[in-house]
Amino acid sequence: MNERRLSNDGSPAPHHDDEVSCMAYHSNKASLKTRISLSSHLFSFLQEGEKIVNYADGTTRIVPSQFMFLPVGNCLMSEKIADNGHYRSILLFCGNALFSSFFDTYYPDVPANAGSNAEKRPIALAHDAFLRHFLASLAAIRQTDSAKNTALLKLKVQELLLYLCTKYDFLVPYFKGVCATNAADNLLRRAVFTHMHQAVTIRELAFLCNMSLSTFKRKFADTFGTTPKQWFLRQRMEEAAKLLRKDGRKASEIYDQLGYEHLSSFVQSFKQFYGTTPGKYQRQE
């Protein structure tokens, strides 16, 4: 099963907490239960096809008459293509700090939802005339100068949140619960994704997150569903395979950019993970 961070261009997703970005996503291939790790909140406006998201305690499904909000976290995402062979959606990413700032300004006295799992569930809502005009404005913004793009998108996120919270009363405590739940998790996620291909130890990451080693390991397992050692090994080996097979790079050219200080350590890890050396793997069909 593949694992990836959902991003706005196929590269690592943004990990700045106040960042916002938008993309038009298109695929002509169905996907089944891809492991997704979201470092930003996501509004997914489906245009063609069907999206199914599995999370810890449930499943959410949308069709083109709907859109989905997915909070920061892990999920299994499936995409079904439409009868015409296409899957299309508009993706709007926004950091938790942007959310928190909005609700601190407009809804300071509304309490957040209680509980831990409720705030992490994606929600599905229906498209309407306002949202169709909203999506048209996003398309126009994507054509503007990139230097102005971010400022405009931040305003659009605020516009969207204000509209949705005015229309659906239950969304205010839900979104505030999302903000509260992810404020503590975001530092760990940002540290992990920032340093995932650098020669930083688990103990050093714990220090950067102002946590003891045992607390960091426990929170890491709660967030990513596995141990730091296993997670980092998988991420680095999958990136190594891509660089070796698709980009034609040599092991001696990539080991340091994957967080290894010595070529021999990289080769040993690669052989342990794939059962063969980088050179033999690269020559396989």
Name given to the CATH architecture of the largest domain: Sandwich
SSE topology string: EEEEEEEEEHEHHHHHHHHH
Domain module count: 2
Q: Strands across the major sheet, in which order?
A: 1-3-8-5-6
Q: State the fourth-level CATH superfamily of the largest domain.
A: Regulatory protein AraC
Radius of gyration (CA) equals 20 Å
Report on the biggest sheet: 5 strands, mixed
Secondary structure class reads alpha+beta
CATH topology of the largest domain: Jelly Rolls
List low-pLDDT spans: 1-5, 7-16
The outline comes out as globular
Percent helix range: 40-55%
Count of beta strands: 10
Instruction: Give the end-to-end Cα distance, rounded to a whole number of Å.
Output: 20 Å
* DSSP summary: helix tally: 10
**How much strand?**
15-25%
Describe what this molecule looks like in 3D.
46% of the residues lie in helices and 22% in strands. The protein has 2 domains: 3-179, Jelly Rolls, CATH 2.60.120; 229-283, Arc Repressor Mutant, subunit A, CATH 1.10.10. The protein has a 5-stranded mixed β-sheet, with no helix packed on it. Strands 2-9-4-7-10 form a 5-stranded antiparallel β-sheet. Residues 1-5 and 7-16 have low confidence and may be disordered. It is built from 10 helices and 10 strands. The protein has 285 residues and is α+β, with helices and mostly antiparallel strands. β5 and β6 (58-62) form a beta hairpin. It starts with a strand and ends with a helix. The chain has helices at 96-106, 129-141, 146-167, 171-195, 202-208, 213-224, 228-245, 251-254, 263-274, 278-283, and strands at 3-4, 20-27, 31-38, 41-48, 50-55, 58-62, 66-70, 73-80, 87-94, 123-126.
